[in-house]
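New to this. Help decode both lines:
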Amino acid sequence: MPSSVMSTPKLRDGRQSPDAVSAVGLRKSYGDKTVLDGIDLRIPAGSVFALLGPNGAGKTTTVQILSTLITADGGQAEVAGHDVATAPDGVRAAIGVTGQFSAVDGLITGEENMLLMADLHHLSKSEGRRVAAELLERFDLTEAAKKPASTYSGGMKRRLDIAMTLVGSPRIIFLDEPTTGLDPRSRHNMWQIIRELVTGGVTVFLTTQYLNEADELADRIAVLNDGKIAAEGTAEELKRLIPGGHVRLRFTDPSAYRSAAHALSEATHDEESLSLQIPSDGSQRELRSILDWLDSAGIEADELTVHTPDLDDVFFALTGSGVPSQKTKEDVR
């Protein structure tokens, strides 16, 4: 299996973009444990980049290096055009970081958390209040602004966390597993926030263990495993790395099943369920070909289901974390 998908990074509208983040040969070890073993990254400005990997793969370490929280043992990296090793102040001025664990102070109100961040960014008192009020409104936190942050729900705390990150108007935001522990509604709200940030020109570097999150949001995805990038590309490019796509035909009429099974020698037969499984990439052309053949042969299938590999399958195949399972992506009846 190829270890990467070679394609030039582009934005969703197809335009080329300058790099917001680039890294070559990043290495990091803790004692005799190699966490990053020479990884390369290239992230266009104004895009969402998702870094996937099992626990302990090095996702947080990568974020910490690129955000200047720790130093790499080897390699080079630039963020917003600044070298993370020789110009860390330039990097810090251009980025925002929301870590796995909330930076919200629960003992003070949401508004006070925002004003504290404004002070840290050396905003004037009036400017700080203006920015805090705008962001609290943007993240639907105005009504709760005067309440202690300890009373906020998990989703509210996460929104406040990101609002605090935006006080300094960063061009690049690192979101390290931003939706871990959130309920589905809060997770979808967070997705919308991320989409709005990118629409506004912000570059988002996202680490996540939710594969549907990467599928929904990311322009490009990299899978990190054993300290190396196991594969990188768009979601669709990564899915094409994994075999196993097929079309399943199910019959209720045994004679129709037998006729189809006799004609479709390449299909896998399941006599108990009266179904056939035909290898397919799920393309419109292949589906049309199957439907045309059924019509011309006078055979009627009671159910046609398209199965394609998803990011779960990609993740399992590249990291060895479990057994890939096929997910139904579309049903045609």
About this structure: Residues 19-104+152-239 form a domain with the Rossmann fold fold (CATH 3.40.50.300).
